[in-house]
């Protein structure tokens, strides 16, 4: 108790409070200018890749099936950090030098695409075969059945796991700090290294990540409720 009161009333606690205040804006800038855009752009591109890969996987064209299977296998079978290092530090060896932010987008998009592909494929396969047969019975083509009957229903099934992937991506963007993207966590690292206050800065960064993920989880609930209302 004595130590706690001593600490609370000490100059040290005042310094930590002032540092927490002064570092808040730079950390929020890192989140707003890099973490959030990196998450949104990577997820949109990754989701597009996921849909294309899932459709290729269930198609009757063997080449597309194999291509999708190899892509998903490579990405799921290698660590995300290794993928980022290959893109940012490895490609310059063959003459391809990319901006850190672009490298991170490519790495995260490929990762989301592979994992999202399995989610969407499973969602499509969960739709009863009778839905396909009903479409064929009224003369619809494979593409029309997919667009108008299967994908809308599969969307409702895939939204919860895809939302979880999106929230996980927010946290994964901290890996972009290792390829020199000055996102939220790298900002915290820079300030912590300068002030020698690692615990405070890392906790502050963790709280900001938590707030972002909490807001996204609320949005996830609203989207799921709306889809349930319109698609059911």
Give me the secondary-structure topology:
Layout: H1 2-8, H2 11-58, H3 62-76, H4 80-90, H5 100-125, H6 129-137, H7 142-172, H8 184-195, H9 198-231
Helix pairs in contact: 2-3, 2-5, 2-8, 2-9, 3-5, 4-5, 5-7, 6-7, 7-9, 8-9
Task: Supply database-style keywords.
83% helix
Structure write-up:
The chain is mainly α and 232 residues long. It has helices at 2-8, 11-58, 62-76, 80-90, 100-125, 129-137, 142-172, 184-195, 198-231. Helix 3 packs across helix 5 (100-125). The model has no long low-confidence stretch (mean pLDDT 90).
Quick summary:
The chain has 232 residues and is mainly α. 83% of the residues lie in helices and 0% in strands.
SSE sequence, one letter per element: HHHHHHHHH
The secondary-structure class comes to mainly alpha
What's the total count of β strands? 0
User: Which percent bin holds the helix content?
Assistant: over 70%
Report the span from N to C terminus. Answer: 58 Å
């Amino acid at each position: 108790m004595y130590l706690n009161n001593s600490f609370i009333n000490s100059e040290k606690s005042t310094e930590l409070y002032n540092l927490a205040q002064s570092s808040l804006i730079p950390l929020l800038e890192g989140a707003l200018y890099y973490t959030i855009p990196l998450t949104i752009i990577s997820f949109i591109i990754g989701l597009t890749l996921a849909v294309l890969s899932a459709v290729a996987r269930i198609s009757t064209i063997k080449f597309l099936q194999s291509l999708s299977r190899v892509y998903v296998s490579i990405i799921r079978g290698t660590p995300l950090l290794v993928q980022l290092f290959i893109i940012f530090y490895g490609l310059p060896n063959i003459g391809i030098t990319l901006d850190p932010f672009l490298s991170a987008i490519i790495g995260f998009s490929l990762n989301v695409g592979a994992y999202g592909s399995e989610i969407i494929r499973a969602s499509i396969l969960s739709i009863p075969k009778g839905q396909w047969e009903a479409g064929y019975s009224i003369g619809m083509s494979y593409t029309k059945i997919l667009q108008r009957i299967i994908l809308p229903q599969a969307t409702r099934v895939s939204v919860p796991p895809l939302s979880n992937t999106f929230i996980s991506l927010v946290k994964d963007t901290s890996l972009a700090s290792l390829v020199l993207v000055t996102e939220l966590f790298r900002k915290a690292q820079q300030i912590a290294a300068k002030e020698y206050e690692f615990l405070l800065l890392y906790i502050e960064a963790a709280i900001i990540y938590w707030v972002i993920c909490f807001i996204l989880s609320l949005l996830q609930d609203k989207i799921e409720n709306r889809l349930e209302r319109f698609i059911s």
